[in-house]
Amino acid sequence: MIDAIGIVNFEDRNTRVQGLSDYRSIAAMSFMGRYRIIDFVISNMINSGIDRIKVLINEQPRSLIDHLQAAQYNINHKHGYIDLLYPGNKYELNDIYFHDVYVMKDTLAEISGQKFSNVVIAPSHMICRIDFEDVIKAHEKSGADVTCVYKQINNGKKKFLGCQRAAVDVDGRITSIEDNIGLSNKMNILAEIYVMSKDTYIELIGEASRISPLFSFINILSHVLSDIKVYGYKFDDYLVCVNSLQEYYRANMEMLDLDKAKELFDDSWPIYTKTNDSPPAFYAKSAHVKNSMIANGCEVYGDLENCILGRGVKIGQGCNIKNSLILPKTVIEPYAHIENAVIDKYAKVSSKREIVGEQDKLAYVKRRDRV
Questions:
Q1: Which helix (H) or strand (E) holds 66?
Q2: Between residues 310 and 75, which one has the greater pLDDT?
Q3: Does the pLDDT value for residue 143 go beyond 80?
Q4: Domain CATH for 286
Q5: Domain range spanning residue 304?
Q6: What angle do CA 157, 159, 161 make, to 5 degrees?
Q7: Across residues 8-13, what is the average pLDDT?
Q8: Are 27 and 134 within one domain?
Q9: Residues 330, 328: Cα–Cα separation, whole Å
Q10: Does one domain contain both 260 and 286?
Q11: Alpha-carbon distance 358 to 362, whole Å?
């Protein structure tokens, strides 16, 4: 246990994954057929020794709440907890007024009365493996008011579009924060992970509320860059931002590459999630599976290549499925042909149906649809 509280933030209102966001928040989306995206940030906090965690809840909360209540996170509830923060009057607001600071300000009275020194804010829609204890130590050593985790990238014209990029001077101080609109490849992308003292957190949230009811946390941080010491912490490991259908698909499919998967997973750093007592996957003699991840409870009678199947998926005999992400409880009837697609939960693809997208223009089948 370290001297900090963790706050899991949600994505801003302009960040959506086509189709999937109609049914659940990004945090609650399936990853690798086994996890939910939020499992990674919560596991990072728990493995780092943070066991007091507050999760900010945005739109479409049911799926996320159900998962968090059932997930087997390794927390000693005698002194640790996971609180879900969702304001009751959200639907009375215009959407532009509902942002992270609007929810965070409801935590100020409780947080001010608790005995801990630091606050760690981390996003639920970015996936990485990071030890927050290292970030906290660097923060305290630097004397910064706020420490922001960033990653240097060389593909900014194609990746992390819509994320925040930062200018970092030779002393490590962040001098500006702007949107990445794809104008250059080399840049410093913010991982949206921030460390600060409890007092600084209270001051920033209070100041944001005083300046404008529309100010989010990134708005107030940008506003005070010249007034307080905001330093960067360079992060060199795997990082992906799930902020579109294409990036969601890419993040999942990258895990079929063992070298990429090793960048995210480590035996000493477990990723906690909701357990499931379904039987192991069944492969019929007619099945041919190549470079794919198959979750428990699946039945495979057809051909799969470069695919990820969630729990309880059924693939009929004679199916030919490539480069696709099939979410839980989906049924693909015999002799269907699917390529470069995302098939949402409980969907049913009829026999001999052909669904073929392209790598840069994926096919998507909605949840519970029959096609």
A1: helix 62-70
A2: 310
A3: yes
A4: 2.160.10.10
A5: 282-365
A6: 75
A7: 88
A8: yes
A9: 6
A10: no
A11: 5
